[in-house]
Amino acid sequence: MTKNWPDNQLPVIARFEVRYRNYLAPDGAITRPPPAFASDIGLLVSLYRAMVLVRAFDLKAVALQRTGRLGTYAVSLGQEAVAVGVASAMRDEDVLLPSYRDNAAMIWRGVKLEEILLFWGGDERGNHSSGPVHDFPCCVPVGSQAPHAAGVAYAFKLRREPRVAVCLFGDGATSKGDVFEAMNFAGVHKLPVVFVITNNQWAISVPLRLQTASETLAQKAIAAGFIGEQVDGNDAVAMHAAATEAIAAARDGRGPRLIEAVTYRLGDHTTADDAARYRPPEEVQARWKDEPIGRLRAYLVGRNAWDKAKEEQLVAECQTRIAAAVERYLATGPRAPETMFDHLYATLPPVYAAQRRDVEENH
């Protein structure tokens, strides 16, 4: 005999959970026992130096854009720990698929500062970078790198290569079908891919609350059949730990992982944006206390691993490196007009080949 269950007593057939990871408080204090690598001061200093460099580089890039020497540029102010934490957990043979705000990850993996400037200056030569040749260039169309990442990971699985695709995108990208289609495919085929959501609370002028009713973005992995974890994206230690574990799981054949890095975009969306038009200044000011660079610096200072002299030396080194990169960028001659055709097709169709010859002969 079939038992009739009242609607409020229907049996539970599944339960799910999302875990949250954090180790450093905004003042650098320890919130819970950190992973073993947190005692590796050399590694933490490297993470810190990388974040300081990209913040100074972003500042200079904005100055170049404001003076007409660079195109539209997206800064990573306030969310540097996400890209640095993730990239530092990758192996050289892994593949990075970054968004347009992930310069820190690209720099960690060897891309030169002047190459990034070339790209944002509208020069395709910027994508012929010094980073791993298999890494993808930064992706400007929102979320479209997620299917690419699934495809890369599928190739790794077919070839039985112990490599991982690591795909970074913003919270706004989770509102795109491309992202969930990629996650669904990755879950079905148990692909070696790690999706990282940089949840900086804003998709240009759209706040997170108007993008989704989900309590977390990490839980979106559950529907795709794999684990999603929420991480304090302003904690470089937590980001490196979460990325290390997720990448190791993917490499070991345990399928994809999703990391939601909760942070905050302290600057404008890009240099073409004025966030003050939709975001109250007091909100931004309140978020400065959580930013990642000061947090990691406080942790290092508390362990007598950093001081004022080292900070001043680092700032000087960053300025010297950035100035030299800017000089090389500005000294790069313009490309010939006909080269606009050179990155359209592997073999240029006759109609475009004729146009290319015409431009070359008449410019």
UniProtKB/TrEMBL annotation:
Question: Superkingdom, according to UniProt?
Answer: Bacteria
InterPro entries reported in the protein's UniProt record: Alpha-ketoacid_DH_E1_comp, DH_E1, PdhA/BkdA, THDP-binding
EC number(s) in its UniProt entry? Answer: 1.2.4.1
| Known cofactor(s) | thiamine diphosphate
Q: Is Oxidoreductase included in the keywords of this UniProt record?
A: yes
Q: Give the keywords, sorted.
A: Oxidoreductase, Pyruvate, Thiamine pyrophosphate
Instruction: Read off the Gene3D superfamilies from this record.
Output: 3.40.50.970
Q: What catalytic activity does the UniProt entry give for this protein?
A: N(6)-[(R)-lipoyl]-L-lysyl-[protein] + pyruvate + H(+) = N(6)-[(R)-S(8)-acetyldihydrolipoyl]-L-lysyl-[protein] + CO2
The UniProt record lists the Dehydrogenase E1 component domain at: 48-328
Alphabetical list of Pfam families matching this protein: E1_dh (PF00676)
As given in the record, the signal peptide range reads none
EC class name: oxidoreductase
One of its GO biological process terms is: branched-chain amino acid catabolic process
Query: Which Gene Ontology MF annotations are present?
Result: pyruvate dehydrogenase (acetyl-transferring) activity
Summarize subunit and interaction data from the UniProt record for this chain.
Answer: Heterodimer of an alpha and a beta chain.
Q: What does this protein do?
A: The pyruvate dehydrogenase complex catalyzes the overall conversion of pyruvate to acetyl-CoA and CO(2). It contains multiple copies of three enzymatic components: pyruvate dehydrogenase (E1), dihydrolipoamide acetyltransferase (E2) and lipoamide dehydrogenase (E3).
State what protein this is by name. Answer: Pyruvate dehydrogenase E1 component subunit alpha
Organism phylogeny: Bacteria, Pseudomonadati, Pseudomonadota, Alphaproteobacteria, Hyphomicrobiales
